[in-house]
TrEMBL record:
Residues 57-142 form the PSP1 C-terminal domain. It comes from Deinococcus piscis. Pfam families: PSP1. It comes from the Bacteria. This is PSP1 C-terminal domain-containing protein. NCBIfam families: RicT_YaaT_fam. Residues 32-59 are annotated as: Disordered.
């Protein structure tokens, strides 16, 4: 099997045909929507979670010059149509954002991705499409994260956002991941360009969960074996295996867990 990706679109997990193609080879793929031009992304290893995914397409053949020319023509047509439809939507007073248009390689299907706060009847836009192509139009509502995948953006790290660059799927990201990593719960710091929690919060979360198992919970009562001072755990430092301990005499910062004794057997994760 090989991983195949459309430009600015979610990845496709495709069945490898009899012939193997080097990474980056343009190929024609039979996807769930129809024929599409894609580029191979290499063969996943046995340890890769993507190797266990059910295939969502099949590589038919390497793309030839005609396929590449057809894909370029349809891409240009889709771009022109996108701006025309945005103008038509404004003229009709439709509160909708036309995100992207994508043709299948045989021009049989045009997928129109849009975003809207309310349910809308967009069939009036089909008449405009008919002036340019006989393709059947499929309307697909997308959320903020899907828009980031399609349009691309620059993340807080200064690089292109992960969802449009390499992520194979969009797993749910929760505020618990930020809490477990002891991050400040500031929406401006934790949100990506799409306005949702950053996808990168998931990367180190399993390691933090493992480290937290060796730490007392925040709020647990513990005593410092060296000084005998007892107090409440106020902050955790998973990466250094230390905690901050608030005692009656003041705050003990960065106390190693090895020098702590949790009271009443409570507070261990």
């Amino acid at each position: 099997m090989q991983l195949v990706r459309y430009p600015r679109s979610p990845a496709l997990h495709a069945v490898l045909s009899e012939q193997s193609y080097p990474s980056g080879t343009p190929v024609v793929v039979q996807s769930q929507r129809g024929l599409a031009l894609a580029h191979t992304r290499g063969e996943p290893s046995a340890e890769s979670p993507h190797a266990k995914q059910a295939p969502s397409g099949q590589i038919l053949r390497a793309a030839d010059a005609q396929d590449l020319a057809q894909a370029e023509r349809l891409s240009a047509l889709a771009e022109d149509l996108k701006w025309n439809l945005r103008a038509q939507a404004r003229a009709q007073g439709l509160a909708v954002k036309i995100v992207s248009l994508e043709f299948t390689l045989d021009e049989a299907l045009l997928t129109l991705s849009y975003s809207a706060e309310d349910r809308l009847d967009l069939r009036s836009l089909i008449a405009e499409v008919r002036h340019y192509t006989p393709a059947r139009v499929n309307f697909t509502a997308v959320g903020a994260r899907e828009q980031a995948v399609t349009l691309g953006a620059i993340g807080a790290c200064g690089r292109e956002n992960c969802s449009s660059r390499f992520l194979q799927e969009l797993p749910p990201i929760t505020i618990r991941m930020a809490r477990d990593q002891q991050l400040p719960l500031n929406p401006d710091k934790l949100s990506g360009p799409c306005g949702r929690l950053m996808c990168c919060l998931q990367y180190e979360h399993p390691m933090y969960l493992e480290l937290l198992r060796e730490l007392p919970r925040r709020g647990a009562h513990a005593c410092h074996t060296g000084s005998g001072a007892c107090g409440k755990v106020t902050k955790l430092h998973p990466l250094t295996a230390q905690v901050d301990l608030a005692t009656e005499n003041g705050l003990l910062e960065h106390v190693p867990v090895s020098e702590l004794e949790v009271q009443r057997g409570k507070g261990k994760r």
